[in-house]
Amino acid sequence: MSRTTAPAPADRKDGATTPTGGLTHGLKQRHLSMIALGGVIGAGLFVGSGAGIAAAGPGIVLAYAVSGLLVMLVMRMLGEMSAARPSSGSFSSHAERAFGSWAGFTSGWAFWVLLSVAVGLEGIGAAKIVTGWLPGTPEWAWVALFMLVFCGTNLAAVKNFGEFEFWFAALKVGAITLFLGLGVLAILGVLPGTDSPGTGNLLGQGGFLPNGSEGLIVGLLASVFSYGGMETVTIAAAESENPVKGVASAVRTAMWRIALFYIGSMAVIVTLLPWNDKAVTEKGPYVAALDHLGIPGAGQIMNVVVLIALLSAMNANIYGSSRIAFSLVHRGLGPKALGKVSGGVPRLAVLASCFFGFVCVGLNYWSPDTIFPWLLNMIGGVILVVWIFIAVSQLALRRRLEREAPEKLVVRMWGFPYLTWVALVGMAGIFFLMARDEGTRVQLYATGAMTLVLAAIGLVRQKTGAGRAS
């Protein structure tokens, strides 16, 4: 099988790279640092974690710890490759270098579909919050407004995306840090008006694992998918002032960020609240916890934070999807029209990603019971497919880097190759659990079908020479 290698960006004396195809270094280090910090705090954590708590009980802390460890390993692998070769194509570029254009095509376009669909979903979620405050206003109008605002933001200079994400991330980080501080004070019994709950909620409502191993499995699956989106920082790094430094810094701090924001907040919530409290799923775990503490207006403030998290995710996903599409086209793996750059921005790629998001919103209104659920199922396991491509690419490229350019190994995967194999076994285990669970089995099959179709197209393109970068 022939392999097609993407052209590497030209090296600069400062250790950074020059983005290919006219992209600029418009993101400052402060932008990238805050994107890395706030990027792990998403709607999946604020909203989706409620279903995980309802299934696993206090054991959700264990579920987030296990899946968090897997994500740390994946981010370390991705960081090793991205620090050595920063690219707006991120894992897709690495997969192409490792296995040929078919791998870059498959992983890249699957991720593009995932992000583009997510843009529409986040718009719908944000609109629901606003219509809750302003009943009677049409939900579709808010979705359209949000889409237009962030489409416009991403059509302008990349620094506009960076500024939006900087302040969005700062607000999210501040809010969750305050939440953790209040929660710890309440647990210790030193917050005015509260008594320490002790271990009553952790062990007294059916035990640490009230629904046994089955509940833990559901919680584990919920936690895995809430981590999606952390890859954006390696995409954004290619347009930063110093990509190598930015990637290295983001990856090296990933461990404490995951431990603090995800595992720490889950521990606070299930200690403060009974896991089977209906408010956990009805209001969301963070709002429910703050309401439980009796802090006036705190629940509504957290709803504002959830809205910000959704809008931040919209902004980041439009950016990420457009850059992945641009990179694929630049490497000869997509329609050339999407590769046109104007003012340092791939504007047609931005418009294509936003258009797909609008289509998804339309499907939600026109076909909420048929086409839209099918689309959701199709992207259900894409993040795991991407992680597998990251792991196998790192296995292949690490040896090559050690032979050809060992000085580029600024970030090194821990315990190579053993921990890479451990991560792959973990991903295979999650696929097995998805196949066992009736609720996720359809997602597994739909994602698998999409991946196989993309791989087949990619292989045909590679064999016919259509996948060669121009």
TrEMBL record:
Which species is this UniProt entry from?
Streptomyces nymphaeiformis
UniProt xrefs under InterPro entries: AA-permease/SLC12A_dom, Amino_acid_permease_CS
Q: Where is this region: Disordered?
A: 1-23
- PANTHER family assigned: GABA PERMEASE, GAMMA-AMINOBUTYRIC ACID PERMEASE
Q: Where does it live in the cell?
A: Membrane
Task: Answer yes or no on keyword Ribonucleoprotein.
Answer: no
Can you list the GO cellular component terms from the UniProt entry? membrane
Does the record bear Transcription in its keywords?
A: no
Q: Which UniProt keywords apply?
A: Amino-acid transport, Membrane, Transmembrane, Transmembrane helix, Transport
One of the Pfam families matching this protein, by short name = AA_permease
- Family per record: Belongs to the amino acid-polyamine-organocation (APC) superfamily. Amino acid transporter (AAT) (TC 2.A.3.1) family.
UniProt GO BP: amino acid transport; transmembrane transport
Membrane topology per the record?
A: Multi-pass membrane protein
Q: Which residues cross the membrane?
A: 34-55, 61-78, 99-120, 140-158, 170-191, 216-238, 258-275, 295-314, 348-366, 372-397, 418-436, 442-460
Q: What is this protein called?
A: GABA permease
Domain called Amino acid permease/ SLC12A: residue spans: 31-461
